[in-house]
Amino acid sequence: MPPEEGHRVVCHLDELLAARGMTVAALAEAVGVTPVNLSVLKNDRAKAIRFSTLTAICEVLGCEVGELLSVGPAAVVQADRSG
To answer: I want to staple 67 with a disulfide (CB 3.0 to 4.6 A). Which of 12, 15, 37, 63 is the partner?
Structure first.
């Protein structure tokens, strides 16, 4: 899916889950959201995220917001999403 104009936020949820040996389903249950909602986030298709959800994800994964989300150059984000 092509990125929205001006949207360069990249989610690193896949990497964080892999490093912790955790599944999307397990994280979703621990955070209190649906696996579908987490999939939307991890596939960079989310248009917004509640601070409470962001806080819960970071608490469960033991990470900082900057480890979960980053802002990348437009060319890098486009390549990540198309590949």
So the answer is: 63
| Residues 62-80 pLDDT 10s | 999 999 999 987 655 555 5
Reading phi first (left if > 0) and then psi (alpha if -120 to 50, else beta), residue 21 is in left
All residues at 6 or more sequence positions from 4 whose CB lies less than 8 Å from its CB, including other chains: 47
Q: Which residue has the higher pLDDT, 30 or 75?
A: 30
- Write down all domains in the chain, each with its CATH number in brackets: 9-82 (1.10.260.40)
Distance CA(11)–CA(23), nearest Å, equals 15
Per the confidence metrics, is the pTM higher than 0.85? no
Sequence-ordered strand ranges (E) for 1-83: 9-11, 69-71
Per-residue pLDDT for 19 more than 80? yes
